[in-house]
Amino acid sequence: MSRTLLAVDGLGKTFASRDRGEPVKAVDDVSFTLDQGETLGLVGESGSGKSTITRCLVGLERPDTGTVTYDGFDVLRAGRDERRRFRREVQLVFQNPYASLNPRMTVEDLVGEQLLVHQGRRSREGRRERVVEVLEMVGLTGAHLPRYPAQFSGGQRQRIAIARALVSEPKVLICDEPVSALDVSVQAQVINLLRAMRRELGLTVLFIAHDLAVVRQLCDRLLVLKDGRVVEEGSREQVYGAPAHEYTRALLAAVPIPDPAADRARRRHYQESR
Ligand SMILES: Nc1ncnc2c1ncn2[C@@H]1O[C@H](COP(=O)(O)OP(=O)(O)OP(=O)(O)O)[C@@H](O)[C@H]1O
Q: What PROSITE patterns does its record include (predicted)?
């Protein structure tokens, strides 16, 4: 039986309105679990509450209600040691690699900093060795160590951000729209990298996105959010094959989703008709 690594129960967050109108219920009684080894997609349009959930999960926002449990302990009320463990084992990859990487730091320092924070015992040489190892895992090399973020393309910067997240050997990766700031041609490369990392490192992934075509390529299970509430939850096959909620059907209708089975059937039909 699979083991639950992260559990969110009854999460709620209301903000005072930015324009002095009605308060905004950004997250409304959201519950879900993330099992070890699985990739769960959190999807919904802009404003559906995805970022607020992520921010509550990693402690950047304090929820009004609910609990977040990681590997058996209550994250929001954890002691120092448990909080440190959570910060090491649960890593984030953000949407925008242009904003998330400090432009004044070299690749060696950007990635190595995470080792200092989480595993301070290593020597400078030991850190460099591990940084090179993880750069090679994401398709970069030791030659990139002295370079600055501005010397890289968007896709390469996201590889650096992924290396930074992976260097402390996390168990869970939370990816908040990790490819939506990238060109479509580069998106596929980064998705393939994430897929390979997940397989090779046995990672558990929470993948947040508004693009259902991207989510389909990666996720085993999906949670569809609307106005801060979960309106649909199911396996990839269920949600894409037979969406139960009107809102999910509308989301699916709005994006061209590649469907290999339908493409094969169309090709067969074409060949047979010739
Ligand atoms: N600090 C804040 N103050 C007031 N309202 C906020 C705040 N943060 C978020 N909201 C509101 O909460 C709702 C959910 O926002 P959130 O950013 O979580 O959605 P999202 O699905 O991540 O959208 P996006 O994809 O655009 O980031 C929105 O209506 C947003 O305007």
A: ABC_TRANSPORTER_1 (PS00211), ABC_TRANSPORTER_2 (PS50893)
